């Protein structure tokens, strides 16, 4: 009898564990209302690769989608398909695929795309064809008002343990083609563009370093590395090339979320592993200042807005915040590259809190919660969770449209015991607000800027000509009258002579 009871308990435990890890796929059309009644969130559409029979939504290029980025003008969005090794452009209004951008390169075929080697990244082995590889696109960031999309690669496919310099592509969003390739440090994941679009930061998960690129020119051929900064120490990459190592665990501080401060004077980087904390970089002096601790461990994403720093805490499933000025006071006065700050506000969201993003007003934060398989919403005025929206399993990437009405998340695959399973989907949510959200104005593109400049130059030329006429009218008129009188007198004299 006791044996039967024990067996029954074991069966219940197995069933419970199995259900906890079960893959879920909510129905398109499902609606969730926030607890305060001010938001209505509709699961509006889905693009997926988990069921070929669902032909209307099926897209074979969606293979472990890692991140999504909506263009600043809200017209398109890009999905990085990590294992598919492509970046896919979709139309925002229809969710129809516009183009699939491959990250498959050969030495000869991509030779014209590569920026000159910086000399800042060390190779461990002499590879015969280092620029023949397929890249696994991870995150992405826009620069130059959305004209360019930067996409780093987890590793080059021949680099089993991500110990060699990886690479990064620059996509011209006007034509949806790669126009430049850059080397990076090992295992780049996160990117951040300064607000003035003059500097791009590349955060290397693989060895505790951050690269800075000067992108102040409008010509991609002028862009170049200026510095690679070290967060405490460079991780020794002596893993070899034969046996595969789990680099998610063997990567030092596991640098992740990256953000420029509003004045662009500093960069703050999340240390997801190791001793944790936030690494602080002085951009002007290109100097690493140290790490500030005091927040929860395993911080993944960072946002800075309206006088606060916000963090997502992955494993514990929290969003934290602290006043920006208080944090920077500690950051600027560290001792031996170390600082500590208490007093963080906490909001429990869902297990595996990954990417977070604001609504246009900043009143709400949307969070992709991986292990909870949900899209959570926080009211920043109260730091309370007000909605928990079911999503395809393992959401990881997230972005919000410039009008706040569309939230898109990517649900990645999971691999357990050699088997792939998981969301394999891009979920599109429509959000209705009781209090209307502002629309973030679309920035001027390079094309409209050039038109404006041409018009301005034409107007300036016309204005300059008018001013010249105004200041010289007296002189011109007097000279013209004198010339006319001389011509008349000369003509009269000539006529008289002919008559004689």
> What is the number of independent domains?
1
- CATH topology name, in short, is Methylamine Dehydrogenase, Chain H
Measure the end-to-end span: 151 Å
CATH-assigned homologous superfamily: YVTN repeat-like/Quinoprotein amine dehydrogenase
Please tell me the overall pLDDT: 87
How many strands, what sense, and barrel or not for the largest sheet? 6 strands, antiparallel
Q: Give the helix tally.
A: 3
Strand content: 35-45%
Q: What gyration radius follows from the Cα positions, in whole Å?
A: 29 Å
Pick out its properties:
globular; Methylamine Dehydrogenase, Chain H; 5-stranded antiparallel sheet; alpha+beta; disordered C terminus; 500 residues
Structure description:
The chain has 500 residues and is an alpha+beta fold. It has one domain (32-440): Methylamine Dehydrogenase, Chain H, CATH 2.130.10.10. The chain is built from three helices and 32 strands. The protein has helices spanning 2-20, 324-331, 446-499; strands at 31-33, 39-48, 65-70, 76-81, 86-91, 97-102, 104-105, 133-137, 141-143, 148-156, 167-172, 177-183, 188-193, 199-204, 209-214, 224-230, 255-260, 266-271, 278-282, 287-293, 299-305, 308-313, 318-323, 338-340, 345-348, 353-358, 364-369, 374-379, 384-390, 395-400, 406-416, 419-433. The strands form seven sheets. Strands 7, 8, 9, 10, 11 and 12 form a six-stranded antiparallel β-sheet that branches. A hairpin with a 5-residue loop joins strand 3 (65-70) and strand 4 (76-81). The longest helix has 54 residues, at 446-499. The chain is globular. The termini are far apart. The model is unreliable at 1-20, 448-486 and 492-500 (pLDDT under 50).
